[in-house]
Amino acid sequence: MRRKNHALIGVSLAVLMAASLTALLMINGCTLVPVNPNDTTPPSVVIKVKGPDGQYAPASAATYSASGGRLDLMCIVTDPQGVKAIQLSFLGNSDSCLVAGSPISGSYPIAGLPGPLQQSLVPNAQGQVPTELPLLATISSPLTCEVLGNPSQIGAPVGAQFIVQCTGQNWSSNPQVQGASATLTVSVD
Description:
By secondary structure, this protein is mainly beta. The chain has 2 domains: 1-30; 33-188, Immunoglobulin-like (Sandwich), CATH 2.60.40. It contains 1 helix and 14 strands; from the N terminus they run αββββββββββββββ. The chain has one helix at 2-27, and strands spanning 32-34, 44-50, 56-58, 61-64, 71-78, 83-99, 102-109, 117-120, 128-130, 132-139, 145-147, 153-157, 161-170, 179-188. The strands form 3 sheets. Strands 4, 6, 7, 8, 11, 12, 13 and 14 form an 8-stranded mixed β-sheet that branches. It is elongated and about 60 Å long.
């Protein structure tokens, strides 16, 4: 009898969580639509950066302090026929690494960037999905580069840039309109 009650509680909690998520999406103004494999248009993807006023605004460029600034960003994927997935990736390389006050030329991967972030959706019990999906990220750690040698030395990237790429996907069965992406170029100072 105890196991049966635990199973019922687990099922009840899952139903409650699904209902809560649906209610939260509805309260936040998110529209739910049936999955549409016949969608003929790609999703819209925009990257927004949080400004000093605390508001997020669309951006294609930003700056970040290598010694440990803070960059808050949001990617939003929108599709009136339903959103399936979102992914954020961070790619960076520096042409120079400042070690003990001396710049060393070369090609150095930038360490301290977040790993890829992603969210994939599953339709609710009625086969519906939201028309909008946001993904938030914060970069707040110092960025470094490593000059390999004996011994290897850790430094700071100088004059570097990294790219934040956001990719969104809808439910279309046509690969040509399934996805879209946006990029943000971040200059490291």
